[in-house]
User: Fold this.
Amino acid sequence: MKLIEQLHSYYLRQSFFPDIVSIFINPFYLIRKGMPKKIIEYSSDFTGKMLDFGCGHKPYQSIFLHVEEYIGVDFENEGHIHQKEQIDVFYDGKSLPFPDNYFDCAICTEVLEHVFDMDSSLILLKRVLKKDARIILTVPFVWPEHEMPFDFRRFTIGGLTQKLEKHGFEIIKAHKNGNYISVIVQLQIMFLHHLLFTRNVYLNLIINAVFIFPFTLAGIIFSSMSLKRKELYFNTIILASKKH
Assistant:
């Protein structure tokens, strides 16, 4: 049982911090490989009390070594089971049980597409953040619908920027994750994933190594050779701060 738990923990880490092994076992390698690098870059000065809004398993908590307190909030009805997740507070979509100006920094990754009333959520986030507090946000631009029926929107980098500025946030940095080739290949991999994958985890590892690995490798090679144009990309990664 302990070995199984260790393998599960290893696979979960590979899902969010993919290394060379992930090329063989992770069908989402192409979209995931760029995210932790940017999160590490954007969070170099994060300290104090930190909010993880839509935390799930808190996959990126290990990055934030200098924060004093790390609190994870997630939704009660997000379209998947929360039994094995590390949630400190459940969010009902209406209120956050924290005082005004409580947090020094925050992160919100691949969550806002699942929030029915995004404007209200941004208002609540702003309320619990201190002035000049920094927040990392990521949202998908090209990705299949998931966790239905709680998948409501996709954002361009311009759309997300405008929405954040409307709610009193200042954009410090913005990054498009992925390019034409990596997105196209990842979507092909997603098709194979839905077509071939089973309920057997071990069989899926074999399927990934035999059928999906060649596509992942091709995506790595050709995306590095592709043009620098970025009209097609996986998701937007933004570093912003609360202005007032």
